[in-house]
Amino acid sequence: MSYTAATGMIVAQIMALPEFARICALHPEAGLDEAMLTEIVGSAGTLAHDVIAPFNRRADAQGCQLDNGRVRLAPGHHAAWQAFVEGGWPLIEGAPEWGGAGLPMLVHSACEELFNRASPAFGMLPTPIRCANRVIEKYADAATRALWCPRLVEGSWAATICISEADAGSDVPRLRTLATRREDGDWSITGEKMWISYGDHDLTPRIAHMVLARTPETGTGTAGLSLFLVPSDIDGQRNGVVVRRIEEKLGLHGSPTCALGFEGARGTLIGTPGRGLAQLFTMIVGMRLSVGSQGAGIAGASASLARTYAAQRRQGGRGDAPPVTIDRHGDIQRLLLACAARAEMARALTLAASAQADLQARETDEAARTQAGLVLSWLLPITKNFCAEAASLCASEAIQVLGGAGYTREWPAEQYLRDARVLAIYEGTSGMQALDLVLRRVLGDEGRAFHAFLALARAEAAPSPDADPLGQMLDLLETAAQGLDKARAPIIACPFLSLASLATTGWLARRLTRLSGTPANNHLAALGRHWLRLALPEAHAQAALVAQGADLVAEFPAMEAACPA
């Protein structure tokens, strides 16, 4: 599927969203309609195809290097970034107060999918810039906001998120980076951080490192963590931020992942001392939605590649006739159809979650705003994890369709698979997303997010649940939820997340099945029907795993005794 075709499907999905009319009403200044949406998303597709995609192949081959203490990016990166900034793409959902366009998150996610389709490594830079700006505009003092927000929104300065340390990645309470107060009121930051995307580069003259550091006077554990903005440069001089190394990675070679040392670097406190971790949660919506866009982009690119190749590659058929294209073979048709349906569900999830984020941010009615927030909190871990898995599965299936050709670097399928694998790891692993769903969305807060989703999905299911795959999956999900408890949560959270993902994508597939009247709508309806056909048996399997509970680890002691690590 070309970028033009992908744009058409994205616009068709958005126009079919029941929430779209309300989002337009809440953004009257945007003047959004189908024509404008097509123009915006189409322009994003053009930039992705003409500029970002050609850069991606070079960047993957050449990668980034550490040269005299500074990161040297792949050739062509500066030109691609300049085109991205000059096109106004960092501005899409930025607040008008800082010069942004103030468009809905829904529009941003639509464009972001296309940029990530072209190069997820390139897309790794705008996300921390945008999410860091959210934290700064919400918690920083007026002077810091005035200095940084306009430049981050326009993309002339950049930002990173510095959380993880050696032996303290997801185990945030064990962070050791120390912040001590200076006589002038600023802070001195000392410690080591790792896994920092775009930790150093010269695409912009300044980088805001958002650093989580310990302020001992505020307490221990997470209570002792505060958030600081540490500029890479102050008055043209380096600010005690040292690049220790660039990680050698499986994929995303065009994105430098750095280990950084902070050697008495000067920083500014953001928000309230001891509330750093809570303040960083402002970024969670944006970060998880961006992973959704990455997954949808890679999954869509993989499905498109497989379909294009299969329509051209000739092999098999009757011996007394010319060979047929391999898309005439039943097994290849099965793979292509499943891959296309999964990719479309990843897109549907990301757009649906983005729509709820817009409603939560703008709804004028308190009850409607609360409802949107609950549905969004249900969708976020599912969107993050399902889209990550969809990217890997679709890339793997594309390689299967291409056969030996897919295993070579002549074709991009192998890069899709390498780039996709990390999506299920960063911004919270699959296990963390699963525990978040079980402990917070189902068992916590009286299960309000879970029940909000159930009510919404059941309202859109067919009147006869027994004959409707969606109704059956919702029944399986509700039964599984009734058997959850905190003791077994770490064991069965992942299969429960898979079951929840199938039921949630089933709800979105049911929406698609009701479309008709245009080639795009007919295409989406067919894929929606096929996804329901695939999802129901898989939902039964995942529900059976959840029901096994502690039996899923019953043999671990025997394995450990027989083959100790």
Description:
By secondary structure, this protein is of the alpha+beta class. Among the domains are: 3-139, Butyryl-Coa Dehydrogenase, subunit A, domain 1 (Orthogonal Bundle), CATH 1.10.540.10; 158-279, Butyryl-CoA Dehydrogenase, subunit A, domain 2 (Beta Barrel); 429-552, no CATH class. The chain contains 19 helices and eleven strands. Helix 3 runs antiparallel to helix 4 (77-86) and helix 15 (448-460) packs parallel to helix 17. The longest helix has 37 residues, at 366-402. The mean pLDDT is 94.
Q: Which shape, going by the Cα principal axes?
A: globular
Low-pLDDT segments: none
What fold name goes in the CATH topology slot of one domain? Butyryl-Coa Dehydrogenase, subunit A, domain 1
Q: What is the share of helical residues? A: 55-70%
Give the strand tally. Answer: 11
Structural class: alpha+beta
Mean pLDDT: 94
Radius of gyration from the CA trace?
24 Å
CATH top-level class of one domain: Mainly Alpha
Major sheet description: 7 strands, mixed
Summarize the helix and strand pattern as letters.
Answer: HHHEEHHHHHEEEEEEEEEHHHHHHHHHHH
Portion of residues in beta strands equals 5-15%
The CATH architecture classification of one domain is: Orthogonal Bundle
Please, how many helices?
Answer: 19
CATH superfamily heading of one domain = Acyl-CoA dehydrogenase/oxidase, N-terminal domain
The N- and C-terminal alpha carbons lie at a distance of 47 Å
